[in-house]
Specification:
Blueprint: H1 2-12, H2 25-31, E1 35-40, E2 45-50, H3 56-68, H4 77-91, H5 95-103, H6 120-129, H7 134-145, H8 161-172
Helix pairs in contact: 1-4, 1-7, 3-8
């Protein structure tokens, strides 16, 4: 559940904290005819966006902040927990998810391969019952798992490959490596 919450907070809780004169990432994409999405599976989280080529640099610079200097706006937490709760409730009757959950009843709970998209109960009640601060847990999760060695970036555009590579390097060279802060 925390990985899924992190996905939501990366996309929607990292707001215009970096003093861009125009808009945050989602607003920038919308303003320029683009779109974005994220998905968290049992093994990975994937973020994707599209925007017309002439706005790729502005979008990529904003997108990179999710990984180099995320700002998990505390005011966005309840909205994103509600979004996760809605997704959870939508999937309650999904046969695949129900079968998978049944299989995992006998699994070792300490094994890293498990399923759980999270819901209000797991993100709020269980975290609070254990004495954890959800915001701090989110920051720790991002700092632990969002490392350069664990990530892959694909940039597609009408620009030549050398220019795209230079842009990617410029925007993402600040993604922390293992052992770094």
């Amino acid at each position: 559940g925390l990985a899924h919450f992190c996905e939501h907070m990366v996309l929607h809780g990292t707001m215009s904290a970096y003093n861009y004169t125009d808009k945050s990432f989602p607003e920038f994409l919308k303003q320029h005819g683009g779109s974005h999405n994220g998905v968290t599976t049992m093994l990975q989280t994937c973020f994707a966006f599209d925007v017309p080529a002439e706005h790729l640099e502005g979008a990529l610079r904003r997108f990179a902040r999710f990984f180099t200097a995320p700002y998990f706006h505390p005011g966005s937490a309840q909205q994103e927990i509600q979004a996760i709760e809605s997704e959870h409730n939508t999937h309650l009757q999904n046969d695949f998810r129900r079968q998978w959950a049944t299989l995992l009843l006998d699994a070792n709970p300490r094994h890293p391969y498990h399923w759980g998209s999270g819901c209000r109960r797991t993100l709020e009640n269980k975290v609070l019952a254990k004495g954890y601060n959800l915001h701090r847990a989110l920051q720790d999760f991002h700092a632990t798992h969002y490392k350069a060695e664990s990530m892959t970036l694909a940039v597609v555009g009408t620009q030549n490959v050398a220019d795209l590579a230079a842009l990617a390097l410029c925007c993402f060279s600040g993604v922390p490596a293992r052992g770094a802060g």
